[in-house]
Amino acid sequence: MLKKFFILLVCLAAFSLGGFCVILFFTEDRKLFFFSALNRETKPEESAEPTVRPNPTESPGRSLDPCPDVPPNLRGVLHVEFRTNRTLQDVRNHVGPLIQQGGRYRPTSCRAKQKVAVIVPFRNRSQHLNHWLYYLHPVLMRQQLDYGVYVINQDGDGAFNRAKLMNIGFNESLKEYDYDCFVFSDVDLVPLDDRNLYRCSDHPRHLSVAVDKFNFILPYATIFGGVTALSKQQFLKVNGFSNTFWGWGGEDDDLSQRLSYRGMFISRPDSVTGRYKMIKHGRDSHNDPNPNSVQKLTETYLNMDTDGINSLSYTVREIRKDLLYTFVTVDVQAPAG
Ligand code: UDH
Ligand code: MN
């Protein structure tokens, strides 16, 4: 009886050893797969630095599994304050080594579902940009996005044109990478909850739902300013933004109307997830309220097919790569006067 049991035990041991050898042999890299599995577990996405830095110009590794729908390392409500004076170097140190030149990043442990260009319209707001970069990069990384940050800087002191800068950002970012989602963000808006994902959905998405400046209330139902996300397809379906809104106001409502004329709806996070803090500021010079915008908003339907991405004209003055962003200085051909 005891002998039979012993023989059975030996057989079982031999069988499992054989199985182990077979698994070992077929493991892709033929390393002790046991140890590589352990290694993987002790290297969570955000806490470990990859030994090999991914090259963002290459296409994302096909062998990686897709990232989960809900990123695992989100924190929820964030503490945000703008009293601290932050230099660009402070921000570079804070954001850490995972970022790639030009403000590029993609997760190393999974394949991001979307390739997101974050477009920031800009002129003379360096301190705001430092705060924005300080808070946004860690959020975007935790959201496991394959993303790049493009700051589109209007050259000269002609009338500001936020919408045209957005169109230029769309155009210029696509020259670098095959982005499929575009987040357009003012430089002074920082999310207060990282569950507000900077990615695109079935309908154009308005992310800055509850801004402190508006007492955390959505001012009106069709508002589409601040921070928005549109897929490449959604953006092209409306011919992008209008290029002809000079000065402050109207361009965001024009885009909102374009979306509705093309049968799209605005999607939004709930008003808790969609909370934002705006850096306090006055009106910038050369960005006075546009007196023509009310009239122009009655003509959206007539103009949208001929005023937009298909009529965009500008000159790139300089493209400068910082570690934290790609800075594109452009002449937007502002009207004289
Ligand atoms: N922007 C610049 N530079 C400028 C003007 C605008 O970078 O000179 C960009 C920047 O990204 C900014 C965005 O365009 O966040 C929108 O402009 P804004 O911040 O002036 O727009 P907002 O809706 O304007 O915040 C509110 C007017 C503030 C007056 C407050 C008086 N209490
Ligand atoms: Mn603002």
UniProtKB/TrEMBL annotation:
It is a single-pass type II membrane protein. One of its GO terms (molecular function) is cytoskeletal protein binding. Its EC number is 2.4.1.-. Residues 205-281 form the Galactosyltransferase C-terminal domain. Keywords: Disulfide bond, Glycoprotein, Glycosyltransferase, Golgi apparatus, Manganese, Membrane, Metal-binding, Signal-anchor, Transferase, Transmembrane, Transmembrane helix. SUPFAM superfamilies: Nucleotide-diphospho-sugar transferases. Pathway: Protein modification; protein glycosylation. InterPro entries: Galactosyl_T (IPR003859), Galactosyl_T_C (IPR027791), Galactosyl_T_N (IPR027995), Nucleotide-diphossugar_trans (IPR029044). Residues 45-69 are annotated as: Disordered. It catalyses: N-acetyl-D-glucosamine + UDP-alpha-D-galactose = beta-D-galactosyl-(1->4)-N-acetyl-D-glucosamine + UDP + H(+). CDD domains: b4GalT. GO terms for biological process: carbohydrate metabolic process; protein N-linked glycosylation. The keyword Transferase applies. Residues 67-201 form the Galactosyltransferase N-terminal domain. One of its GO terms (cellular component) is Golgi membrane. It is found in: Golgi apparatus membrane. Its cofactor is Mn(2+). Responsible for the synthesis of complex-type N-linked oligosaccharides in many glycoproteins as well as the carbohydrate moieties of glycolipids. Belongs to the glycosyltransferase 7 family. This is Beta-1,4-galactosyltransferase. It comes from Poecilia mexicana.
